[in-house]
Amino acid sequence: xxxxxxxxxxxxxxxxxxxxxxxxxxxxxxxxxxxxxxxxxxxxxxxxxxxxxxxxxxxxxxxxxxxxxxxxxxxxxxxxxxxxxxxxxxxxxxxxxxxxxxxxxxxxxxxxxxxxxxxxxxxxxxxxxxxxxxxxxxxxxxxxxxxxxxxxxxxxxxxxxxxxxxxxxxxxxxxxxxxxxxxxxxxxxxxxxxxxxxxxxxxxxxxxxxxxxxxxxxxxxxxxxxxxxxxxxxxxxxxxxxxxxxxxxxxxxxxxxxxxxxxxxxxxxxxxxxxxxxxxxxxx
Amino acid sequence: xxxxxxxxxxxxxxxxxxxxxxxxxxxxxxxxxxxxxxxxxxxxxxxxxxxxxxxxxxxxxxxxxxxxxxxxxxxxxxxxxxxxxxxxxxxxxxxxxxxxxxxxxxxxxxxxxxxxxxxxxxxxxxxxxxxxxxxxxxxxxxxxxxxxxxxxxxxxxxxxxxxxxxxxxxxxxxxxxxxxxxxxxxxxxxxxxxxxxxxxxxxxxxxxxxxxxxxxxxxxxxxxxxxxxxxxxxxxxxxxxxxxxxxxxxx
Lengths: 284, 251
Hints:
The complex is a heterodimer of chains A (284) and B (251).
Chain A: H1 14-20, E1 31-35, H2 48-57, E2 62-65, H3 78-94, E3 99-105, H4 111-124, E4 129-132, H5 144-153, E5 157-159, H6 176-185, E6 191-193, H7 196-207, E7 213-216, H8 226-234, E8 239-240, H9 250-259, H10 264-279
Parallel strand pairs in A: 1-2, 2-3, 3-4, 4-5, 5-6, 6-7, 7-8
Helix pairs in contact in A: 3-4, 4-5, 6-7, 7-8
Chain B: E1 3-9, H1 22-32, E2 36-41, H2 43-46, H3 51-61, E3 67-69, H4 80-87, E4 94-96, H5 98-101, H6 108-120, E5 124-127, H7 147-156, E6 162-165, H8 169-178, E7 183-185, H9 194-201, E8 209-210, H10 220-228, H11 234-249
Parallel strand pairs in B: 1-2, 2-3, 4-5, 5-6, 6-7, 7-8
């Protein structure tokens, strides 16, 4: 097995060096578990081409879209949630081979409305996961029907999480400790805690006992040492590559994976094998 | 030639990463393909008087041709002129860390330092931030240097070469628009193809972007990939990777 070796080469195009010297990990598809479209200035369907061009540049095979989560503030109505998921569906329709939908939900809209949305998105339109943001803190029992549905359908739940020294970004924002509580209540549901960069070591240790929680590699800046620490404490099977595109870029997040002293097997798991397992995708 | 204008040796106490010695930094940069790096001491950020840290830095880096020592000066100290006199003849640039040494860029001593460096034609590296403020240790919060203060400093000293290290993209755009001579590094630039977007929207900025990795706090590859994969011409990428820095440093 080759290491993901970028070492010793002063190429003008280092990325090509990275990807052509891959071993086991290159044989797997690379999946970005955490991206948003439309988002901000990238609002037209044609803007997807920019995302996909960027993904190709980094040899990213699949992108999971979590929707334009902040389009209507922290507490969107059921109608607004549907509109956000419709945009995701439109994007999936345009590039079905590359894009995977995650059904964005606001637990505050109620169990029935949430279930209708899950049925529409996952059962009817093939979304592969559920995305929860900051509408409701994940200690709330309002999440229970959603997690029950996730268990029933066998789909993962990607949940926003952060420790923010400046204070929560939203009144109901969940922390890693909150995600750990959710994981304890629903041990059979695979949870993806977003933002390793914001979880920091404290957050990693809080989710560590809950083996149904994985963490994505997005969040903050490419702080050296954190990824290695997460692998050491959680094991490589509990990390998934995610960027939070377009807020962050592949350069920043893949740079962490290329530079960290990991084995080829560990990189392969994080880049795509773990996500493929969660999403039940076939290897290419 | 690839030039990294933002590196340091030592240990960042809030980082999960281990301490980086000059030997280790030089080896890591060599493996990443970086030919030359401006290097400071992390210890100097935490000491009110960084003289001894600068002395150690110059002594330790003597055998590492890849690493050019950049002393950190604290202009709050009465002896800052002596420090500049000691280091300026041997330094590629001077760095200041206003947030950590607790002063504003508007003070008389900073004005004196700026005038001195303009006369010596030495670049002044202003460390705008060391960390994302959102992930700082809760009891040890250090605010960023307001970029408006950098703009004001540049206006007061039009002949001084200033590099703002650690700006976010929105701050970088503001700085580059407001100050025609200020340069920035790419270490904290964020968003989809941040470097490419900056260059495409503001082509004139390309000559003022510098590769800066913020190693050892950040992974070197993240900064390199931002530039190497930017949707820009090869000439622009090469300029950001090294040519702009070489021009600034007179190399």
